[in-house]
Amino acid sequence: MARYVEALERYRGGRLSCMEAAEFLGISERHFRRLRERYEADGAEGLIDRRRGRASGRRAPVDRIEFVVEQYRTRYWDFTVKHFHEALQSEHGFALGYTWTKTVLQSRGLVAIAPRRSAHRKKRPRRPLPGMMLFQDGSPHPWLAGQAPLDLIVTLDDATSAVYSIFLVEEEGTASSFRGLDEVISQHGLFSSLYTDRGSHYFTTPKAGGKVDKGQPTQVGRALAELRIEHIPSYSPEARGRMERVFGTLQQRLPPLLRLNGITTVEAANRYLADTYLCEHNARFAVAPAEEGSAFVPFAAGLRDILCSKHERVVGRDNCVRYDGRILQIPEQRHRHHFVKVTVQVHEYPDGTIALFHGPRRLAGYTADGGLIREEIPIQSAA
Question: Is the per-residue pLDDT at 267 higher than 60?
C-alpha cells in the first residue's frame, strides 16, 4: 500500500510520468490510471482490493467440497491424493483440478503437506528400444489388507517402464523368476538383457557384498545363458532406481485397489493383476520409447524344459532316482531294460512337477510328491 501511495504522490508532484510510475510499481500504464482515479476520489482507501472479504465467483459449492471430503474419509482414505483425484475423475465425472483437490484435503488435515524434495539427480538414460533391457525384482509388502506380507514379482521394460509381468507369491525365488520370464517371453519374445539384484536365486556371490561369480551360475543364470540373454547384476539400490520408483508407486496404489475390490486371496489378486490392473497401469505410467521398433525376437521353441531347475542324478540299483527326499521309479522303457548306474537329468518345473531325461529322451513325469504320472508320453527332446 505504502509503495502505491508513494508512486501516486510522486506522479502528482510531477516527478514521475504516468508510464514511469507504472514501471516503478510493475503494473501496466492502464491499471495505474485506474488506481490514480480511485486515489483521487477516495484517497488511500480507494486502493484497497474491492474483492477483499468477498467470496470468489469461481468458488466451488459447499456441497461439492463436502462430497470430496466424505469420499476420502469413508472410501479412499488409503489412496494418495493423485490416485484419489484420478478415481474422482473416472468414477464420479469430477471436473475440478488436482491442485484444488489437494488443497481441500490439506486444509481439512486429511493429508500432510509434502516436504521439499532434495536436489534433483539426473536419471540414467533409458534404452532406446523395448526389449533391449528388462528389470525383474520382488517387493515384500502387506499387499492384502490385514494379512502377512507377500512378495510382488514385477518384470519391467527399461525403455518404456511398461510392466510385462506382475503377480504375488509367498516368497520370491527361482520358481517366481521362471514364471515371470515365461510370461514375458511367451507374449513378447526373447529380449537382450535382464538386470536384477544379486539375490541367491539370481547369482552366486562367494563373499557377502562382493562381486558375483558368473562361473557358478544359478538355475536362473543357466536358463538365461541357454536363451542367450545377458544377465546383469546390480551393485547398489541406486542402480535399480527405476525399479524402486515403480515399487513405490505400486505400494501406494495397489493395496487400496485390492481392498476396494474386496480381494483377499492371492489367487483373486493375481487374476485382478493380470486381467485388469496391468493394462491400466501401463496406460497410466508407460512412456513412448526413444526410437521406433522393438528389440524383442520371436521364440518358437518350448520354454518348459529351459525355465526349470535341472540336476543330474545317478540311477540306483533298484532303477530308481533319489531326488530331494523323493524316490522316482523309472517305468519300463521300450528302448532299454533298465538304467542302473546311468546318469540322468531331473527337471523340476515351477509348478512342482518333475520329469526325468536321459539325453534328449524324456523317460517319465512325476507329481510334486514323486508319484508317477501314468500316461502315454510321446518321445520328446529336452532343450
Answer: yes
